[in-house]
Design a protein that fits this description.
CATH architecture: 3-Layer(aba) Sandwich
Structural class: alpha+beta
CATH topology: Aminopeptidase
Bound molecules: coenzyme A
CATH class: Alpha Beta
Number of helices: 5
Strand content: 25-35%
Shape: globular
Largest sheet: 8 strands, mixed
Radius of gyration: 17 Å
């Protein structure tokens, strides 16, 4: 392990979390990130029931709408406890859900968290996911004051790999047979991004 003394001024993460009055709303050029509401259940279900979207996800596709309702309840509960920020992504100027961005396993002591993200397949390849994740990272580093963000993805997930690399993440290691999903066990590639690497959302 490398030890590095860090004496910089730090944001008080616990106090910042406590002070948050409402789920943060983040707005970019083409997408917005907002809290989910119960009415999003159909769109969330459509997203996570799509086998293409779920190909490299850590759980199998949803099969019933109640799973989406449960997920929304879990997200709102996670925000109430300040342990999870799971935004839904909408196109700017349209409130319909086309994706998600999640910040989870927030560890205030070690100033790190993990991220995940998804986008409806009919929106892939236009840079919308990259823009959404950049908004989340900007908030994570600048407002929350985290030092490090991690993403662990399936090494076969080329578009996710590309998205992370483009945002400045470094590939930090290959972990073998880490997730059991359905009848498959898959490896993980761990990516990391430090606050000092972050150049800001475009
Ligand atoms: C991962 C995901 C969000 C990326 O969405 P996207 O719309 O392709 O994202 P972006 O357009 O912002 O960026 C993806 C990059 O990968 C590239 N890419 C897309 N498909 C690719 C492929 N099959 N092989 C290599 N690169 C690919 C794109 O060209 C783009 O690169 P660029 O910025 O240099 O042009 C989307 O594929 C998705 O929702 N997948 C399912 C959920 C998932 O696996 N999430 C990640 C695990 S947490």
């Amino acid at each position: 392990m490398t030890l590095r003394h860090d004496s910089g001024t730090r944001i008080d993460i616990a106090a910042t979390l406590d002070r948050l009055q409402a789920f943060p709303r983040l707005q970019g050029k083409r997408v917005c990130l907002r809290a989910p509401v119960a009415e999003d259940a159909d769109a969330v279900f459509a997203l996570f029931a799509d086998p293409e979207v779920m190909r490299y996800w850590s759980r199998p596709p949803m099969t019933v709408r109640a799973e989406a309702e449960g997920l929304i309840a879990e997200i709102l509960e996670g925000f109430a406890r300040r342990t999870l920020f799971n935004w839904v992504v909408t196109p700017r100027g349209d409130d319909g859900v086309i994706g998600t961005c999640a910040l989870f396993r927030i560890d205030a002591r070690h100033r790190r968290a993990e991220i995940g993200y998804s986008l409806r397949a009919d929106h892939w390849g236009r840079g919308l996911a990259g823009e959404a994740v950049a908004l989340m990272l900007d908030w994570t580093f600048r407002t929350l004051g985290l030092h490090r963000v991690e993403a662990d993805i399936d090494p076969r997930n080329a578009s996710s790999q590309r998205l992370l690399t483009r945002l400045g993440f470094a590939s930090e290691g290959h972990l073998r047979e880490r997730y059991f999903v359905g009848d498959e066990v898959s490896d993980t590639e761990l990516f990391g991004l430090l606050a000092s690497d972050w150049k800001g959302a475009a």
